[in-house]
Amino acid sequence: MTRTFPPAAIAVRALLLSCLAAGPLHAAPAAAVAQPKLIVVLVVDGLPSEQVQRYREQFGTGGFRRLLGQGASFSNAHQAHGVTVTAVGHAAILSGAYPYQHGVIGNNWIDPLTHASVYCTEDAAYTYIGEDTKPGDGTSPARLRVGTVGDELRYATGNRAKVLTVSGKDRGAILLAGKSGTAYMYMEKSGNFASSTYYMASHPQWVQRYQANKPQDRYYGKSWTPLLGDAAYANDSGDELYPAKPGVSNRFPFSFYSESGSLDADYYNRLRASPFLDELTLDFARAAIEGENLGKNPAGLPDLIGVSLSAHDYVNHAYGPESKMSHDHLQRLDRMLAGFFNYLDQRLGAGNVVVVLTADHGFPNTPEYAKAQHMDAGRVDGDKLVADLNQHLAATYGAAKLVIAASLPNIHLDDSLIAKGGLKRAEVENTAARFLLAQTGVAQAYTRTQFENGALPATRMSMLMQRAWNRQLSGDLMVVLKPYWYFSAGNSGTSHGSPYAYDTNVPLMMMGQRWIKPGTYPQYTEVVDIAPTLSHLLHLRPPAAAEGRVLAESLR
Fold first, then answer.
1. Can you tell me the distance from the alpha carbon of 156 to that of 214, in angstroms, rounded to the nearest whole number?
2. Final residue before a domain boundary, out of 452, 487, 522
3. Same-domain pairing of 469 and 443
4. Are residues 455 and 519 both part of a single domain?
5. Same domain, 301 and 428
6. CA–CA distance, 174 with 177 (Å, rounded to integer)
7. What is the Cα–Cα distance from 321 to 310, expressed in whole angstroms?
8. 278 and 237 in a common domain
9. CATH code where residue 241 lies
10. Which of 232, 405, 441, 542 could cross-link with 485 by S-S, CB 3.0 to 4.6 Å?
């Protein structure tokens, strides 16, 4: 059938043809979209979102309040996987991937071939530069299976853009740096920040100068005392929840020294659970920005620095997020961030920098505090749980030690014993799961067969645990404890690692005058959204395994 057109359409078509015959249309050229000169990714290790909201009225004007007022803040942001620990969270931030793809399923896990425990960033092929290196120390990103925003930035610029990270923990720096960035980490024995031979043969001169000045020694003999008046801490938990350990002070003031009376590993290790570690980390970040000239790339390209601040995690582990110590540490960190933001303004200009702040995981209250609030809470001895499971399976099937290894929440069964006994794997898994579900404090037990077949209940917990399960690396069973219960053989402190909101809900804030639209955004958001959003701002392809979305609602 021949298509016919009305007279008006014929006239428009004739006009267009005459314009094309006369030559090309001359439209004004589109203005190039400017890129940030420096991306700053801040990770506060172990910071639940609720702490930022709970203490916000006490913050100064230039730190968290500046992020909340001048930036975009997502109040319902989550590390949306089920094993919420440091390594897993750091791997997600700039890869945009979940553990089932990025391959970092814990801080430690069981090697499926040797059944030995492995550390997330250990690599015997490399050593720390100028520092002692023990077997199992974190020296490379070999176990990270995916790329990051930094890797894509380096690729797109022919390695001319710089990507550098620093952290109080090796895994905090290495997993943010990706495959092609450069990581520096705090050394417990010397108090230095050092890199490894994965990244370079020797430190650049600016690092050597920084180390020679020994800034870590300035805290010897000093004390950490509360920043605010007593009334500011009136709602914090009482000291009775923190049983004293022999020879260890767990009350203000905290003094920093060594038993030997000299500057040694004892002293440098004590600094970790204090505001001084974060102060040193931010000082090193300043030295890196100046030493590498970050944000002033001679090729006019954007650079990226990742700064993982580790001390809050150590403090929360020891005392819980309800404690005066955690409260005061966050106030001190707030003032440190204000100083760092002011430094960035002066060096690069507020209109040239994009800052992202998030956390690798949140934190629950200590079980003792939760019990005082009439919650069902407690501690589960993980070693005893695994031993009791093995005893139960032996009594059921007549095969000793069917559980060959465990790194909770993952439990691994012995394939050879199952085959030798002529047992059905799915049946053994189900028997084990039923036993685990009957134990005090256990909420759920998932099996390999369920994960492989996608046969999980249609719940958020199941979705988060599915994302946390890696087919090649994870166990044959994964255990989830009830809310406010966690694995601990001790009687003090708290931990994290669950799929519950207190562990998954973390801050996500972005600030940048020319790119970020200020506001508080209640939309459900995930930390994996950071990678595609930064990729969009930097005009990069997203990392290959990224599954997040661009946070378009917060962009100008």
1. 37
2. 487
3. yes
4. no
5. no
6. 5
7. 15
8. yes
9. 3.40.720.10
10. 441
Helix (H, G, I), strand (E, B) or coil at 357: strand
Would you say the pTM of this structure is higher than 0.85?
yes
Identify the pLDDT of residue 497.
98
Q: Is residue 323 part of a domain?
A: yes
Question: Which residues constitute the domain of residue 324?
Answer: 38-70+141-362+505-554
pLDDT tens by residue, 58-108: 999 999 999 999 999 999 999 999 999 999 999 999 999 999 999 999 999
Pick the last residue of a domain from 487, 522, 537: 487
* 289 touches 327 (CB < 8 A): no
Residues 309 and 353 occupy one common structural domain? yes
Among 403, 425, 399, 400, which Cα is nearest to 414's?
A: 403
Q: How many residues are listed for the chain in this entry? A: 556
Q: Is residue 96 part of a domain?
A: no
Question: Phi and psi at residue 37, in whole multiples of 5°?
Answer: -80, -30
Residues 197 and 52 placed together within one structural domain of the fold: yes
Nearest to 417 by CA among 429, 399, 436, 432: 399
Please provide the DSSP assignment of 193-241 as one string. Answer: EE-BTTT-SS--HHHHHHHHH-GGGGGTT-EE--SS-GGGGTTSPPGGG
8 A C-beta contact, residue 540 and residue 102: no
* Cα–Cα distance, 150 to 95 (Å, whole number): 9
Same domain as 520, residue 386: no
Per-residue pLDDT for 20 more than 60? no
Sequence-distant (6+) residues with CB within 8 A of 34 are 514
Angle between helices 149-156 and 530-537 (to 10 degrees): 20
How many angstroms separate the CA atoms of 63 and 433, rounded?
A: 47
For residue 24, being part of any structural domain is answered with: no
pLDDT of residue 30: 38
For the chain, give percent helix, strand, coil, nearest 5: 40, 15, 45
Residue 147 has which token pair? 């790329």
The 3 state secondary structure assigned to 491-513 is CCCCCCCCCCHHHHECCEEEECC
Whole-angstrom distance, CA of residue 271 vs CA of residue 77: 30
